[in-house]
Structures are given as C-alpha cells and as structure tokens.
Design brief:
- The structure holds 2 protein chains of 2 kinds.
- Chain A is 26% helix and 28% strand.
- Chain A is an alpha+beta fold.
- Chain A has 6 domains: 2-39 and 163-190, Phenylalanyl-tRNA Synthetase, Chain B, domain 1; 44-157, Nucleic acid-binding proteins (OB fold (Dihydrolipoamide Acetyltransferase, E2P), Beta Barrel); 208-405, Phenylalanyl-tRNA Synthetase, Chain B, domain 3 (3-Layer(bba) Sandwich), CATH 3.50.40.10; 412-482, Phenylalanyl-tRNA Synthetase, Chain B, domain 1, CATH 3.30.56; 499-708, Bira Bifunctional Protein, Domain 2 (BirA Bifunctional Protein, domain 2); 724-811, Alpha-Beta Plaits.
- In chain A, helix 6 packs across helix 7 (256-268), helix 8 (349-359) crosses helix 9 (364-370) and helix 11 (418-425) packs across helix 13.
- The longest helix of chain A is centred in the last third of the chain and has 19 residues, at 789-807.
- Chain A starts with a strand and ends with a strand.
- By secondary structure, chain B is an alpha+beta fold.
- Chain B has 2 domains: 2-91; 109-341, BirA Bifunctional Protein, domain 2.
- Chain B has helices at 2-18, 22-33, 38-43, 53-91, 109-123, 137-140, 172-182, 224-239, 292-297, 314-322, 329-332, 335-338, and strands at residues 127-128, 134-136, 165-167, 188-197, 209-219, 245-252, 255-264, 281-290, 306-313.
- In chain B, the strands form 2 sheets. Chain B has a 7-stranded mixed β-sheet with strand order 1-4-5-9-8-7-6, sandwiched between helices. A two-stranded antiparallel sheet of chain B has the order 2-3.
- In chain B, strand 6 and strand 7 form a beta hairpin.
- Chain B starts with a helix and ends in a 6-residue tail after the last helix.
- Classes of the chains: A alpha+beta, B alpha+beta.
- At the A-B interface, helix 2, helix 8, helix 11, helix 13 and helix 14 of A face helix 5, strand 1, strand 2, strand 4 and strand 5 of B.
Chain lengths: 813, 344
C-alpha cells in the first residue's frame, strides 16, 4: 500500500510530523513503512504554459516552433520535437534555469538556428512514472487539462511536493489497506481525531429500485451486495487532483467513473465496481457460482473458462463480472455510458483468493477481498462514490440503496482484565492508562468493578477476536520499548545437547582437525542423481516435490555423495584439484511411490577425497590420495566413538563403486552384523561422467552409531613387565586379505598377544605372479609376569604354523 | 736425567703449540705421555738413581707430565669448541621458509554460527530439539494457528510433496512436537535448529534452503518482559555487552503479541552505516508470546501457562557476523570460501 502524506493529512492532522517521522512512528507501532519517497524527483522552474501558436521549424521537418505564454509577461519561443504538441494546449514548460530529474539544466539554446527559450516537458522528463499515464501522454509531451492556471508551478499542479510511504503490511492488518485505516492507526499513535470523508448523497426523487434489483444465490460466498443507480453521467477525465492521488498510489487513471471507484477503494478499503447499467439486462443482479462450461470475456479481453467454484455477478442469465476479481467486457463503462450500476459488496475472501490465484489475476480489489473487507464500510463507501459521481460526472444519484444481505454481522466483544494485561506483559499499567489506550484506538468498552474491560471491537479490526489480541493492542500503543526487561522466574534448568548432536559435533571437530572441510549442500537434487549408488539408497522411491522450481531440484536426495561430487567438480574447475570434504545431513527415503506418511529421514556422514594428500610445498612431496586415506578417516571416526572393535570391512562391489577397491562397512550390533555404509573408490566410469580424477568416498548411517557410541573411558594399567616383539614376513596368494591374517593370528596367539600390526606389504617378480609379501609385527606380553623367550618362541611357532596351514603362507627367511 | 726431562717438556710444549687438529693432538699425547711414550721412557731409568735423587727426579717427572697434560686439555677444549662451531655453522637453515603445518579443515560457517548460537542458549538452560525436515501440514501449519487458506500462509510459500506433506517452512513444527512430547509438563525450554525450505528465487539475500534456530519457553507466568530479558541476554552474549535490542510490533500467526527484533548494528555500533541503512539497527529475529491456540493444540491450557517463542535465520546472522555479501556462497562450497573459516 502506497500512502500519500498529503492525502493522509486530509483525514488526520499531520502537522508536527514530517513524512519520515510519520514513517518511523508507524513502523514502531507495527505498521512497517518500507520507505519514503518524494514524488518530486528534482523538478524546479517548470510552470504551466499555454501554447498560443505552433509553426513548422524552417530547417527541420520534425521540429515545431511554439509560442508559449508561461505567465512571464512576455511570450516564450520554444522549439519542440514532440509529435503531439499543438496550439491551444496547456503544457509543462521548463523555463531557462529550470532543473529536471535526469540532471538536465535548461539553458538558452539554438536548435537548428532557431532560438528556444525553454523546453516543453514529457511526463518522463518530469520524473513521473509514465506507465500510469495514457499512451498518447507517454509518447509525447504531457498535456494538462484545459482549466489549468498559466504560470502555476508544475510541482503544485501535479502534486509533486508530496511524499509517498510504502507500507509493508502484515496479513492481519488489512485494515491499513485504506487511507482511513492508516488514519485511525495514526490517530491511535498520536491521540489525534480522524476526519471522515463527506459521503452525503443528495438523493433524487426517482427510486433506484425502479431501475435495478439485487439477489444472492450463493449466500456462503457473498454476505452482502449493495448497489446504487446513478443516472445521466458524463464520462470524461477525472479531476487532476484525483488523478494525482491515484498515480501517487500506483493506479492508472482511466476516466472519472473508474477513477472514483478506485479513489474510494483507496479511501475506505472497499473495492467498488461500476457497470454500464444499460448493458446489464433488466438492471438485474444475481450473485451465483459459475456453471460448468461457462465463459466470460473479462475487461482485459481474455476469454476466461470459468469453474464451478468461481463466484459470478450475473444479470440473472449470463455473467457480467467475476466477483471481486475483474469485470466483464460486456458491461464495461465506456465513453458512451450514461447510467451506472455501482456495486459495493462483501465477497468471501477464500473464494476470491482461489479464483484470482487460478486465473493469475491479482488486482487491488482482489487483494482487499481476499483479506475480508470491513462489513461496516460497504454502504459508506458506496455512498461516497455516488456522491463523487454526482460532483465529478454530473450524475443524478437515484433514491436508495438496493441490497441483499445473507448474513448479518454481529459485533465482536472481547473481555480482558487489567491483571491479565499486566501479568502477560510484565507491566504495571493502571486502569486509566488502559482506558486511554482503548480510547485512542476508538475502541468502545465498559469496565467492571474488578477492572475487567469488555471491549466492542470496531468492524474494521476483524483481526481482534481474543484477549491476547487486545493485549497486543495495549502493548503496541503503550510502546514495546516501555515494557520492562526481566529474567525468567522459576526453577533454572540445565541446558544440554542431545547425544546425537554431541556426537555430530565431535565428528565435525575430528574431521576438520584432520584437514577436511565441512560442506553443506542442497537437499533437493535432480531425479537422475537418485539413481546413483543404489546400495546407499536402498530399494526405495525418491521423494518428489509436487511443484519443483526446476527439474534439477525436483526430488529429495537419497545419498550425500552426488552433491559432494558436484562440489569436487566445481572446485576442480577453479583449479582446486585437491579436495577433502565431508557433509553430515539427511537423506530421504520412502517405500511408497505416493507418500501417505512421512518418508524416512536418515542422518548420514559422507566424505570425499581426491587429488593429493597435501598441497605441494618446498619440503613436502605430494602424493595422491588413495583408498587407505579415506578408510583412515572413517577409522578415525570409529576410534573417536570408541566403536572400532565393532566394525569390520568386507570387500564389496556395489553399483557405481570400483569393484576392486570398495568395502562394505559392517557394524556389530545386538541385532547382528549390519551394513551401515560403504567406503571405496568411485567406479572409473562415474569419475569420467563427473569429470573428476580418482576419487575416494564413504557414506555411512549415523543413527546406528548414536546407539552404540561408547564415551566411557576406562583406564588400563600401564604394563609392569616387559614385552617381547617378533616380526614375521610371509609370502602368500595376493587375494588373501591382511584382515584375515590378523584375525587368525589373534585367535591362535590368544591373550598373550598384545598387538599385531601390518608394517609392510609388497608384490614383485621375485615373489612370483599373484603372490605378495606381508610383514607383521607381533608384540607378546604377560601382564602378570615376565615372559620367557622359550614361551614366546613356542607360541610364535604356533602362529607361523597356523598361517602356513590356513593360507599356504611361506615364511620369508 | 733432569735435563732430559726439561728438554722433553720444552720439546712437548713446542710441538703442542703447532698442533692443528684433534688427531694430531692425540698422536702427541701418545708420543709424550703414552705407555710407550717419551716420558715413560725417561722415567724408566729411575732405577739407576740414588735414593736421594729418586724423589727429586720423580717430582720433576710429575711436573713435566702435569704441564703437558694442561696444555693438551686446553688444546682439546679449543678443538671441541671449534668442532661445535663448525657443526652449528653447517646446520644453519633458512628460518624464513614456511613450516610444515598439519592440515586444517573448516567447520562450515553456517554450522559454526549455529553451534555458537546453540552454546549461548545451552548456557542459558535450554536443551536442543530436532525434528524431521519433511513435515505434515498439521505440524507445519495447522497446529501453529495457520489453517488451510489462511492468508498468512502466503508469507511462506511452500514446497509440497503431497496435499498433506511438505518441506517444513520453519523449525516451529519441532516446537509443536516438543510440546506434544512433554505431555503438558513444564517448564519447556528448547532451541530448535535446522534446515527449512521456502519457495524463493535464489539471489544474494534469498535461498530456497536455509537454516533457522527457534526457541520456545513455556511455564507458569511467563511474561513478555521475560522475552525481552531473554533476548537482551542472548544478543549481548552473541554480539557483545554494548548490544541493545529494539522490538517492533509485527505479526506471526503463532504468537500474540508478536514482534520483530532489531539489534544494534554490528558494523557501526548504532551510529548508522551502509549495512544498517543508516538506522543504527539490524533486524535479526522475530518473536512473540505463544498464541493460546498454539498452546491448546500443543496440549497446554492457556489459562494455566503462558510462553514465548522466537526465531532467527542462521544465514542472516552469518552474513552479518562475517560480512559476507552473497548467501549463495554458503551452498556453493568453494574451498577458497570454506577455508577462511578454519580458525577460531
């Protein structure tokens, strides 16, 4: 809503407040003013001139030499190139020394040899939004009405000294979609009285009911329909001051009839519609829902296919308007119109909203209906418009309002006690202070002995229905700044993270401290992305948005890895080849194709490594990352959570992963061994598709880890007896996994084996094809006493034998 | 014999003066003082001396030995010092070359800010609650006093999956879930952080996916003044002791009264600058007293208890805190952007 300062001043005395101060006052009171804009964009020295004579320029076909009376005593000679300039016009004249918004300074000049003592201006040159002007005015100079006063500053004539406040209204305050609403609000904030517009109608003896009739056949969609019949109007331009007001509010002036309906809508917030009464057959109005297959050509010349939920104004047979949204072309007011059927009605907000949405037709009228109009203003607004039509369209307003009412409006009464107000706000207001506030708001009330206020809420404030709504009004007018600042009383509570949150924070710390960056990507992805890594998505359907903004972001992700890959690609394209990133976030899985319940949201952790381990530096040789780097990251996370003992890795070859370099990650739980994710290299085909180098990733479920994570640290006594170390190197078949060797060694050696680590693995021609050497370091220790060399030798011998027997291992000597 | 000893002394001292390296020094020690050395050789002849002469010559012999040893020791020290000096000279490195740092990754700036916000509220006695990002219409709207066709739903254009299931548009449904889970018990004091989704064209200040942190307090006799007190404490912990708040009446369907909260501009401290559009204030959160309908739907009697709620956008705070000019950076994950946050 755009509010003109000067216009508002007609309903409430604003002296003492500049537009900026007014804006601040309203904003602090809860009606946010987005900005204040001066209508004058920098015009000085422009006055109304009268074109006495127009002659062709002797040396230029497209130029005219005009003789202009600008009230300066002497006529001015002005060269003008506009096609629409003509003798007998009143026009804006920028005189020598004038300044225009685009920075133009008007100087004495010669145009093709002819002296020009100024410039005749277009609307655009005056800084007006010419989109709101008729086309002929847009293309040439601005032509002013014939009754304009020669020599009068154009700033006054066009109302340019005004300032416009742009209100950003919250949905509850649709009462401020009207000048009167804003005036009441300002009155509540300043204590000033509101002056209502003059809407007295001087009725003629002729009865409106003899010309028109009204009925409502859809009572649940229209509770009140009122009409007046205005005879013998003369369609023409509306007065310039009214046009100025409309332009200031962002509405294009059309003609006096339409302008008056818009002007009154802005005043009262009640949209009005004027029909050419002679085109509404029988002067009959019936409000009903559309029938299947019905159509209506609306004012914008679109043939609209109507649906049964749309509310129509009909002449009893055919539609003449889409109720509250747009009029029909068949009943439009034109220059030939002489009789007007003027409508003022209350249409159901939801009905209008649905229709305007569906047809993509949102207008100043529909916006107001959608938020429910004030039932108390249907008739006053109708009268005001009729009164203005009598004055500015020479109309004869016939006697009486013809109306149909299907549901009365009962006044809203809300009770609130002084103690509730103070208890809720933490204030200590007196009864008198609250009375003053309600008085300023123009709320009528009665107070009982125990300070209970019974407030009759004015119909314009449909947002107030409960005690807390009144409390907010009191708080607003009292001033939020004046409410004290207190600590919460009552028992203090200990604050904490939940266990999953604490775990995620620890993981975040661990990984970032190892040089991995955390990323956050979008939950929405492209459908083809959800086809990747089926082993991670499970046998489910992706969740699809019903109206995505783009196909690329139309489904919910089923794995974190595709976006990590995009991030790697993005950074690679910016010459950042070494990428180490991780993300913790939800994936969304559903077993239903059409959702009937919420999908599963699984918290996951995924990481991606590609490029080199470190950036090259003068003393550091770079080495490419490999499988064991990404696996190490994962192991570090499990170590952190104290669950490494419950994790095993098993070679796996799920789709889109490198079949020789991927492991399933298994977690030992009470329910048995569960696969919680995968770690490995991407399949080379996929790497090619995403244009990335060798890339290593993992993705695991977090929720099972929340269950098993072990944060209890139990101290183990430091050893008091020495350990005996034995290294062993065996040659065996390549495909025998080191993990199997260590498991066997542990089983064979039993408790006396403190640790076993692989310290070297290699292959080579000397070993033979398909063979490898694995070197292990074993540490034996007895916590109770010193081990003897013989004991260890014997035990170690068993280990060697077991390796030989189980894996065909040959001891390297 | 005495003459021979004296001659040995002067010969030894003279040769020792000339010595150039530790090897030579050692050779001379063997030559003069060794078991088969010159001094031993001379003193071997002591047997032929008289009983009176013997102690005299013995003493002279000891003196000569002592004198030679002193010089050898001196020489040794000198050589040691030289050796150390040489070594230090050889080991000298260019200390201006860069060191070998362990790699450092960064917590994503949005999580960094969210953690900081969470910690402030944990310190104030709040627990942290989470809920699903895909929600039912009931939890996201209806239970928050936003029935179907309510005009205020325009404020939050939503991504629907079905007529009844949508991407949550705020973390408020977690508040409803918390209330239901509390089953009427008080006090409720929670913070609900998380991702939310609204249909918005992405630009420098808008993103269809963003993060919110909301708070909810329910207890007997909770007042709007408590809300102001809580928010002031929060902003002073987050933005410094000098930070002040300013509440402006506003509207949210789930609170009444409702307010927008401005905080003293973090850039200019309230003097007015470009960041705060010369107002000295920055809008950072919305809040209000929990609407009685919301309390009722959450299983509380609005005549028995009252509450307040507040919510803020994590992106907004991060933009302000770090002076970031474009919200899209948060989701592009350019390493040159992320790595700037790998520090305190």
């Amino acid at each position: 809503m755009k509010v003109s300062y000067q216009w508002l001043n007609e309903y409430i005395d604003l002296s003492g407040f500049s537009a900026e101060e007014l804006a601040e006052k309203l904003t602090r009171g809860g009606i946010e003013v987005d900005g204040v804009e001066a209508r004058n964009k920098g015009v000085t020295g422009v006055v109304v001139g009268y074109v006495k004579k127009k002659e062709k320029h002797p040396d230029a076909d497209k130029l005219n030499v005009c003789t202009v009376d600008a009230g300066q005593g002497e006529d001015l000679q002005i060269v003008c190139g506009a096609r629409n300039v003509d003798a007998g016009q009143y026009v804006p004249v920028a005189m020598i020394g004038a300044k225009l918004p685009d920075g133009l300074n008007i100087k004495r000049a010669k145009l093709r040899g002819v002296e020009s003592q100024g410039m005749i201006c277009s609307a655009k040159e005056l800084g007006l939004n010419d989109k709101l002007l008729p086309k002929e005015q847009q293309e040439g100079i601005l032509v002013l009405p014939q009754d304009s006063e020669i020599g009068r500053p154009i700033v006054e004539v066009l109302g340019l000294s005004d300032e416009i406040m742009e209100l950003d209204l919250t949905p509850n305050r649709s009462d401020c979609l009207s000048m009167l609403g804003v005036a009441y609000e300002m009155g509540a904030l300043t204590g000033q009285q509101v002056k209502l517009p003059d809407n007295r109608v001087h009725d003629a003896s002729e009865q409106a009911a003899d010309h028109i009739s009204v009925s409502i056949s859809a009572p649940e969609h229209c509770t009140h329909y009122a009409a007046r019949y205005i005879k013998g109007i003369k369609v023409g331009p509306s007065p310039l001051w009214m046009q100025n007001r409309l332009i200031a509010a962002g509405i294009r002036p059309i003609n006096n009839i339409v302008d008056i309906t818009n002007f009154v809508m802005l005043e009262y917030g009640q949209p009005l519609h004027a029909f050419d009464a002679d085109k509404v057959s029988g002067g009959r109005i019936d409000v009903r829902l559309a029938k299947p297959g019905e159509t209506l050509v609306t004012l914008d010349d679109q043939d609209r296919r109507l649906e049964p939920h749309m509310l129509l104004i009909t002449d009893g047979e055919k539609p003449v308007a889409l109720a509250g949204v747009m009029g029909g072309a068949n009943s439009e007011v034109t220059s030939e119109t002489v009789n007007i059927l003027l409508e003022s009605a209350r249409f159901d907000g939801g009905t209008v909203r649905k229709t305007s949405r569906q047809l993509g037709l949102r207008s100043e009228a529909s916006i107001r209906f959608e938020k429910e109009v004030d039932p108390g203003r249907v008739i006053p607004a109708l009268d005001r418009a009729a009164a203005l039509m009598a004055v500015y369209a020479a109309g004869l307003v016939t006697e009486g309002v013809v109306e149909a009412v299907t549901a009365g409006v009962s006044p809203v009464t809300v009770k609130v006690s002084l103690s509730k107000i103070n208890g809720y706000l933490g204030t200590s207001l007196s009864s008198l202070e609250v009375k003053t506030i309600f008085g300023r708001l123009h709320f009528e009330y009665e107070v009982s002995g125990d300070d209970v206020f019974e407030v009759r809420v004015p119909s314009r404030r449909g947002d107030i229905t409960r005690d807390v709504d009144l409390i907010e009004e009191v708080a607003r007018i009292y001033g939020y700044d004046n409410i004290p600042t207190t600590p919460i009383e009552g028992a203090s509570t200990p604050g904490s993270l939940t266990l999953p949150q604490a775990i995620r924070r620890e993981i975040r710390k661990r990984l970032t401290n190892s040089g991995v960056h955390e990323v956050i990507s979008y939950s929405f992805t492209a459908p083809e992305r959800t086809g990747l890594f089926p082993a991670l998505a499970g046998n489910v359907y992706p969740v699809r948005l019903s109206m995505p903004m783009s196909e690329d972001r139309s489904v919910l992700r089923t794995s974190l890895i595709p976006h990590l890959l995009e991030i790697a690609g993005y950074n690679r394209n910016r010459k950042n080849d070494n990428v180490a990133v991780f993300e913790m976030g939800s994936v969304f899985l559903s077993t239903e194709q059409e959702l009937t319940r919420l999908p599963q949201e699984k918290h996951r952790l995924a990481a991606l490594l590609t490029g080199s381990r470190t950036d090259a530096q003068w003393n550091v040789k770079t080495a490419p990352v490999d499988f064991y780097d990404v696996k190490g990251m994962l192991e570090a996370v499990f170590d952190l959570l104290g669950i490494s003992g419950k994790i095993t890795y098993e070679a796996a070859a799920p789709e889109h992963w490198h079949p020789g370099r991927t492991a399933a990650v298994l977690l030992d739980t009470e329910r048995g061994s569960e696969c919680i994710g995968y770690v490995g290299q991407l399949h080379p085909d996929l790497q090619r598709e995403f244009d990335v180098a060798d890339t290593y990733v993992f993705e695991i479920e977090l929720s099972p880890l929340y269950e098993v994570a072990d944060f209890s640290i139990v101290y183990k006594a430091l050893p008091r007896y020495p350990a005996i170390g034995r290294d062993i190197a065996v040659v065996l078949e390549k495909q025998v996994e080191a993990g199997k060797l260590t498991v066997l060694i542990k089983e064979t050696a039993g408790d006396l084996l403190e640790s076993v680590e692989v310290f070297d693995v290699f292959t080579g021609e000397k070993l033979g094809a398909n063979k490898k050497s694995v070197a292990l370091s074993l540490v034996y220790r007895n916590a109770e006493r010193t081990l003897t060399d013989e004991e260890v030798t014997e035990l170690h011998g068993k280990v060697v034998t077991a390796l030989e027997q189980s894996f065909g291992a040959e001891l390297r000597k | 014999m005495k003459e021979r000893l004296e001659a040995l002394r002067s010969e030894a001292l003279q040769e020792l003066q000339q010595v150039a390296d530790p090897g030579q020094l050692n050779e001379l020690r063997v030559k003069f003082l060794g078991k088969k050395g010159a001094l031993t050789e001379i003193l071997r002849g002591m047997g032929s001396l008289s009983a009176e002469e013997r102690p005299v010559i013995g003493q002279v012999g000891n003196e000569v030995r002592g004198a030679i040893e002193v010089v050898i020791e001196e020489k040794q020290l000198i050589f040691q010092r030289q050796e150390t000096e040489n070594r230090l000279r050889e080991e000298t490195i260019d200390v201006t070359l860069p060191g070998t740092k362990p790699a450092a990754g960064a917590v994503h700036p949005l999580n960094k800010v969210a953690q900081e916000l969470e910690d402030v509220f944990i310190g104030m006695g709040y627990t942290i609650a989470e809920g699903p990002e895909v929600e039912t219409d009931f939890f996201n709207f209806e239970a928050l006093n936003l029935p179907k066709n309510h005009p205020a739903r325009d404020m939050q254009d939503s991504f629907y999956v079905t007529d009844d299931i949508l991407m949550r548009t705020h973390t408020s449904p977690v508040q409803v879930r918390t209330m239901k889970a509390m089953n009427g018990k008080t006090p409720v004091k929670v913070i609900c952080p998380g991702k939310v989704y609204r249909r918005d064209d992405d630009d420098a200040t808008h993103s269809f996916q963003f993060n919110q942190i909301e708070g909810l307090v329910i207890d007997k006799n909770i007042r709007m003044s408590d809300l102001k007190g809580t928010l002031l404490q929060f902003v002073q912990q987050m933005f410094g002791k000098q930070a002040q708040i300013r509440l402006r009446p506003s509207f949210f369907p789930f609170t009444e009264p409702s307010a927008e909260v401005d905080v003293t501009c973090v850039q200019c401290g309230g003097d007015g600058c470009r960041m705060c559009k010369q107002t000295g204030w920055l809008e950072i959160l919305g809040c209000g007293m929990v609407h009685p309908r919301v309390l009722e739907m959450g299983g509380y009697d609005p005549n028995e208890v009252s509450g307040f709620a507040f919510g803020m956008g994590v992106e907004r705070i991060a933009l302000l805190k770090y002076g970031i000019d474009d919200i899209r950076h948060f989701y592009t994950n350019d390493l040159r952007f992320l790595s700037q946050f790998a520090r305190m």
